[in-house]
Q: What sequence folds into this?
């Protein structure tokens, strides 16, 4: 009797099996049609989505979900390295070697002769100096070179501003930034009154950009702050729906005044619990 057990099940758990699974999925003759059709461009959006799902699980303290989300994110790396191997660009081992070398080079106080007696702040400065050298070696000599275009807009704005601040292009204090927020809000209001769609979009971008700068000066991560508010809005709007459902009604059947009152009630309930 022939043993039909797939050899994949005999591989040890871990990266070797995962890498082989991806190689099989991408096999042009015996692989999965969907996986075979994918390329770097089509997989990139999934990678961003999976990274956000990891962050979401951490923010919700959903530790039981985090393992699976990290696995999904790791799968994205394996996907890219398999496609890289198919084009003779790189493979999983070469990617691992590259990042290992980078970590060793950026931590001479651990893997070299430098003193380990330094603060986290000093290490951050040293890290930035090393990254600047690496960017220069790649021909990225301008201050804002290398800030990835694919980052979420708020995160990219924050990184751009931090780079500019390193060379002195920055406001001196929070009051100056708040003044700029007011200025940009007025300009947005003027553009809205003139009903100039292009100007409204431009001014809205300026206002969002300066709000990111305000967050930076207040030592707040704008992405984290907005995620927190998104969660708060979802939670409170859910309370509105629950209150209406208890009366056999749907939000579409309620007035704005009713929903505002229920929102305030949900807000007050949250504050009471927090106390």
A:
């Amino acid at each position: 009797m022939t043993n039909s057990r797939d050899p994949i099940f005999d591989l040890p758990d871990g990266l070797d099996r995962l890498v082989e699974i991806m190689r099989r999925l991408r096999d042009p003759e015996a692989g999965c049609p969907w996986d075979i059709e994918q390329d770097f461009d089509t997989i990139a959006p999934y990678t961003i989505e999976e990274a956000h799902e990891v962050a979401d699980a951490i923010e919700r303290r959903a530790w039981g979900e985090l393992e699976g989300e990290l696995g999904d994110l790791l799968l994205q790396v394996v996907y890219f390295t398999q496609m890289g191997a198919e084009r003779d660009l790189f493979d999983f081992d070469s990617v691992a070697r590259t990042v290992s070398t980078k970590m060793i080079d950026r931590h001479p106080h651990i893997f070299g002769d430098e003193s380990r007696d330094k603060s986290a702040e000093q290490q951050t400065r040293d890290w930035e100096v090393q990254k600047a050298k690496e960017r220069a070696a790649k021909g990225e000599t301008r201050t804002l070179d290398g800030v990835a275009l694919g980052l979420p807009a708020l995160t990219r704005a924050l990184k751009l501003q931090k780079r500019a601040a390193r060379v002195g292009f920055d406001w001196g204090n929070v009051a100056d930034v708040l003044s700029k927020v007011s200025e940009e809000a007025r300009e947005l209001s003027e553009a809205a009154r003139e009903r100039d769609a292009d100007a409204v979009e431009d001014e809205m971008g300026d206002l969002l950009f300066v709000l990111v700068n305000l967050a930076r000066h207040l030592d707040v991560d704008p992405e984290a702050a907005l995620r927190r508010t998104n969660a708060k809005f979802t939670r409170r709007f859910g309370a509105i729906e629950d209150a209406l459902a208890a009366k056999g009604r749907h939000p579409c059947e309620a007035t704005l005044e009713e929903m505002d009152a229920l929102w305030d009630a949900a807000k007050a309930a949250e504050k009471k619990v927090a106390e």
Q: What stands out?
A: The chain has twelve helices and no strands.
